[in-house]
Amino acid sequence: MPEHCPVCGQAYEPEPGFYWGAMYISFVFSTGIMLVIGFAVYFLLNDPDTWVYILSVAVASLLFMPFSLRYSRTLMLYLFGGVRYDAARARTKS
What we know:
InterPro entries: DUF983
Organism: Hymenobacter lutimineralis
Low-confidence stretches: none
Pfam families: DUF983
Number of helices: 3
Structural class: mainly alpha
Radius of gyration: 18 Å
Keywords: Membrane, Transmembrane, Transmembrane helix
Shape: elongated
Transmembrane segments: 21-45, 51-69
């Protein structure tokens, strides 16, 4: 991952250890994905065997891992890093 945004120059890590909080946000995303998939399997397949739950939750977790990582870091930057999107600045750089 580059240190700065190539378009606006925003530092992706404002301070050392900044993304420790993103780890917790990612945990919430992963927990939500696992709960949704678990309930979907339960209701759609009428309470299947345990291995079906484990396999479906594991596959869903692996598939959504890039989403979880990327959006947890993005939320951390927007909520606690003071980052705001500036459309005018993005247009002038491109």
